[in-house]
Amino acid sequence: MALRKRRIKQQGYGLPSPLSNLAPEPIHSSAAPTPADHAEEGQIVVTDANTVHICGGITAGTSTGVWYNLGSGTGNFTTAVATISLTTPLVTNDSADLSLTTTTTGDIIVNSVDSITAGAGDTSSITVDSGDLSLITTTTGDVIFTAVDSLTATAGAASSVTVDSADLSLITTTTGDVVLTSVDSITATAGAASSITVDSADLSLVTTTTGDVVVTAVDSITATAGAASSIIVDSADLTLATTTTGDVNLTSVNQITLNSTLGAVTMTALTDTQAAAAVTINANVGVGVFTGLTTEAAATEVLTVTNLYCTADSAILCSLSTKGANDAQMTITRVKPLAGSFTVSALNNGAQAVNGDLILSFWIYQV
């Protein structure tokens, strides 16, 4: 364009000052200005393509003009992009609402090389009426929500927070709570080892009226605490269950205590009933029912339990009950652990032979 406008200030005549400086008149050009073009600071150039440019002066020590493209177009846009480099806020709305709106279709995209900051002095909201709200860093960087008081995210349908290849952190840095509230359910899904960490306060998973707190994992669930901890259910049942396969393991450096106010602690045992002196029970806790035995007074009966959890070094707790009406007092005299089985020898200290079922209960301890 070869613009070389001399710095002759525009002046107007009037009151209260006889001569007042005016802004330079806009220039209409067929092409956009380039660094080779010079003009007064604040000079506006409008091109045939309806683009608007403003002069920022001349770079110190050079003859290079500085121009800013202020964008173009009027009316309603399907997509609007404004690119500008500033060290102060781009948009400030002092005492009213700031609305970025697409009335029918289209996206509102806010991009920054470094950071984007939205500050509000009062209760504020970002509302999406019938589409998706995406807060994304495409290569590196963080999406950070910070509030002096509280942050609330509300959705009327199924919603998700997705982190593709990094960490998702919900943090209160000094005081305050991180609260996740749902009318129906809250689901946290991770494709790798994950954790919920509370540094110096309580972690509460609570349903306030009805509903369940469900923690599900394909592999394992681990809860670790550095101090005395508890899982409390106020007026319902607490169930630790594996639905198909897998174990429920309770591990403690010191001790595990089961407290029941009513003294009711239930252990479900695996049972096998046989009309012989041998049963097969592959469990740590089991009950063998032996029917049809008629052990005479002063005689010894040897009961065999095949059990894959038993080793030659196993510690086994046993008790033996007699259901018959006769005076048959079966007393355990020996428990012998073997690899894959164990035997229980019982002496009839009564005056009569066994005439009912013998019930052997056992618990194999892992040592």
Key terms for this structure?
367 residues; mainly beta; Jelly Rolls; four-stranded mixed β-sheet; rod-shaped
What does this structure look like?
- With 367 residues, this protein is mainly beta.
- Among the domains are: 18-72, no CATH class; 270-365, Jelly Rolls (Sandwich).
- The protein is 0% helix and 23% strand.
- The strands form four sheets. The chain has a four-stranded mixed sheet, with no helix packed on it. The protein has a four-stranded mixed sheet with strand order 7-9-14-11, with no helix packed on it. A four-stranded mixed sheet has the order 8-10-13-12, with no helix packed on it.
- A hairpin with a 3-residue loop joins strand 4 (44-47) and strand 5.
- The chain is rod-shaped.
- The relative contact order is 0.06.
CATH C-level class of the domain at 270-365: Mainly Beta
Helix/strand/pairing category: mainly beta
H-E string: EEEEEEEEEEEEEE
Number of helices: 0
Seen as an oligomer or otherwise, the chain set is single chain
CATH architecture of the domain at 270-365: Sandwich
Rounded radius of gyration (Å):
40 Å
The CATH topology of the domain at 270-365 is what? Jelly Rolls
Strand content: 15-25%
Secondary structure blueprint with pairings:
Elements: E1 10-13, E2 19-22, E3 27-29, E4 44-47, E5 51-58, E6 65-72, E7 270-274, E8 278-280, E9 285-290, E10 300-306, E11 315-322, E12 330-338, E13 341-348, E14 358-365
Parallel strand pairs: 3-4, 7-9, 8-10
Antiparallel strand pairs: 1-2, 4-5, 5-6, 9-14, 10-13, 11-14, 12-13
